[in-house]
Design goal:
With 251 residues, the protein is mainly alpha-helical. The protein has 9 helices and no strands.
Length: 251
Amino acid sequence: MILNIINQCFPLVLALYAFAGLGWLFQKKPAKLFFLWLGFGLHTFFLINRGFLSGAWFLNPVFEESFFLPWSLAMLYLVINFFSKNPKLADGLLPPILIFSSLAFLFPTGIVPPNPKTQTLFSSFFFLLEVLSHACFISGSALAILYLKQQEPYRLFHSFLVWGFIFYSLAQVVGAYWAYLGWATPLHWSNRHLQSASLWCFYAALLHLRYLPVWNLRTEARFSMIGLLLILLYGYGGPLTESNLPARIGG
């Protein structure tokens, strides 16, 4: 019962992130960081609790994108705020944190129960890498907006896109091996696999076109918005419109 109660605390997480957003709007830095750290801590506790909802520790629910993605964005915010030469750049990630935390309400809080095909660390490692890559891509797009407005002189958005591509490439390798273990083939001609392949090809092209003389960072910044739309379409468009979603427990 206690686990199910904790599993319903995500509205409080969003409220704390919203208070952090208000602190940003009213230029109250101490309040902004206080509520962000508090929300991040509660968010972490919420994710860890999800791993116990099946009755035994199971890692996959912790890395479910609907809830792990906003946590990853908040984590990147705190990393930028701590390590960047200009901590104010982190504020560009507050809107994505609020947007994707709000989108999480469209998904059930329960978890997909374990099955024989997910009883491997390769499954969890795949979801971890994929969500981290999406968080880097989204952060790169958010910082690209600041770059286009000439508020981000360090070209940090490009670094996030590169790290996102690295994580996403590793996710494809791990995912192919997991698919081989679970379904005896590294590739299915399914929407999921084709969407992953198209997203990888998009960012591969985006990052390598910089070697053309006519390509520059401002063009890369503009085209990064297309990647953001693809992540929204693939990550949220399909799951929210499908009628045969898998059964869940603990919701």
